[in-house]
Design goal:
2 domains
């Protein structure tokens, strides 16, 4: 299996060197580039990174939001994983709205951090279970405005799979449809539900009472 392509971004040389060294010890990850944290200054990659890892303990949340938005604008297919200190649910929700795919604590072991990178690359989202109840409450108003009942049967089926963390290719194989068909249904569902990412979709689905216990949405670290 090819290693996961990672771009590491940090707010200090010390943290950046640590992350790069840690991931470099694993055969499952390849650090394409290591960057000090800036907004608007990105290298050009011939092959897009699968994961953009942002490591910070001191950067203001507004700056992180802008960085996430810029990462998603430049590399929309890349998963953005934030490694940092504990944050209020409101801040995590703002990150998710900006396009964040996952958040993990900075004190993870090397094995746990590497696994988090692999998981967010494969499944597209990592939500720590401790944030789910509060995020549900915060996003409930979106459900009131655009309930799941607005979805077609096929859209709802695909949303259920996507919210469990299944990839587009996995969903297509399960339902015996093309990947483009899955993407089209997801785009329609995103528009109807007023969400922009799988992470938002998962929280909304949980709020609506979808049973995702067998999925990979709640990721305890």
């Amino acid at each position: 299996m090819e290693p996961v392509r990672v771009v590491a971004i940090a707010d200090s040389v010390f943290v950046l060197e640590g992350i790069t060294s840690l991931l470099g010890q694993s055969e499952t990850c390849e650090v394409m580039s290591a960057l000090l944290m800036t907004v608007g200054r990105w290298p050009l990659f011939y092959i897009s990174p699968q994961v953009i890892l942002i490591a910070t303990t001191t950067t203001p949340s507004t700056t992180i939001c802008r960085l996430i938005e810029e990462a998603k604008r430049r590399y929309p297919e890349s998963a953005v994983l934030l490694v940092g200190v504990s944050q209020p649910a409101e801040v995590i929700a703002a990150y998710i709205n900006a396009g964040l795919n996952g958040f993990v604590h900075h004190d993870l072991s090397p094995v746990q951090l590497t696994q988090a990178v692999l998981d967010v690359a494969r499944y597209g989202l990592i939500l720590d279970a401790m944030f789910v109840p509060k995020l549900q409450q915060m996003l409930q108003h979106d459900l009131d405005e655009a309930p799941l009942s607005s979805l077609t049967a096929r859209e709802l089926e695909i949303v259920r799979h996507a919210a469990k963390g299944r990839t587009n290719h996995e969903i297509a194989a399960d339902l015996q449809v093309s990947v483009n068909t899955v993407k089209a249904h997801l785009r329609n569902a995103y528009e109807k539900l007023n969400v922009a990412s799988r992470a938002e979709l998962a929280v909304l689905a949980l709020s609506a009472g979808m049973k995702l216990s067998e999925g990979r949405v709640a990721y305890l670290v």
